[in-house]
Design goal:
Elements lengths: L12 E2 L2 E3 L6 H26 L22 H26 L2 E2 L1 H19 L8 H26 L4 H25 L13 H36 L17 H21 L7
Helix pairs in contact: 1-2, 2-3, 3-4, 4-5, 4-6, 5-6
């Protein structure tokens, strides 16, 4: 039982997992299944374009016709490895939401953390032998990727921490915006002139632009939080009502039964696994 485990009062988890989503959780369940299917679908379709571009077959791993037996297409194989681990994360989400009797939140988090650890590991060598510009943009991408993997790993032992949610969201925003920037830098520079790897100024500005992306992510989060706070205080139809705030829902017969089941499951897990282990 790791720290940060939700207590019995939440009434919707049993023994380290959640009950299969019911009617009140249908929207959340559909969202989780949709996210899992999106990761799975993207990871299956993208390798097809990597290995079978028009007129080319890059599925070969070794050149058996060469006596030295060199490896072939290392970048493509690294990409498909990345996609494969994110596909695994999507399959785990689907299994947790749809096929298992109880949703295993810890297992979903562990699979996603593993995917980001693999991504960080591959980024360490992904730009080997490439020009300095491509090397620099991938090195900068490695920083938020590694920190995201670290945050996801910490969440295994300390779930439901708002600070980790904010950090994870910010890091993912930075990764997304920097990937878009990378596409323009490497393939479609707005100036029409390619970035020069032999220019110290070009390499320095790549780092400068990355810092701007860090600030952009903070700005996006602050804007969303500010607008949400304004709506909650002034724009909501119930804004201004006395005593309005976050209140604990009234427990019904079903919720009371779930609480009893959760207490029993916690007692069973304490006896089976002991304390200090992360929830899976």
């Amino acid at each position: 039982m790791g720290p940060g485990r939700p207590g019995a009062k939440e009434g919707n988890r049993v023994g380290g997992g959640s009950l299969r989503p019911g009617a009140r959780e249908a929207g959340q369940g559909e969202l989780g299944v949709g996210l899992g299917r999106s990761r799975e679908g993207c990871s299956i379709t993208w390798p097809e374009g990597l290995f079978y571009p028009p007129g080319t077959n890059k599925l070969a791993l070794v050149d058996w016709g060469d006596p030295a037996r060199p490896f072939l297409f290392p970048s493509e194989w690294q990409h498909v490895t990345m996609f494969g681990f994110f596909a695994l994360s999507g399959w785990v989400d689907l299994a947790s939401w749809v096929w298992l009797a109880r949703r295993r939140v810890g297992l979903e988090r562990a699979a996603l953390a593993l995917a980001f650890h693999v991504l960080a590991l591959l980024l360490l060598t992904h730009s080997q032998g490439k020009d300095p510009v491509e090397n620099r943009v991938h090195s900068l991408l490695l920083l938020p990727t590694f920190l995201t993997a670290l945050v996801l790993t910490v969440e295994l032992w300390a779930p439901d921490q708002p600070q980790l949610w904010v950090a994870k969201t910010w890091l993912l925003l930075v990764q997304g915006s920097w990937l878009l920037q990378t596409a323009f830098v490497l393939y479609r520079p707005p100036s029409g002139q390619p970035w020069r790897g032999d220019s110290p100024a070009d390499l320095m500005f790549l780092s400068t632009f990355f810092c701007w992306h860090l600030a952009l992510g903070i700005g996006v989060l602050a804007t969303i939080y500010g607008l949400s706070a304004l709506w909650h205080r002034h724009g909501s139809p119930r804004a201004g009502e006395k005593g309005l705030g976050y209140q604990r829902c009234q427990l019904g017969p079903l919720d009371e039964e779930l609480q009893k089941l959760e207490v029993e499951a916690e007692q069973t897990e304490r006896g089976s696994f002991g304390a200090g282990l992360p929830e899976i």
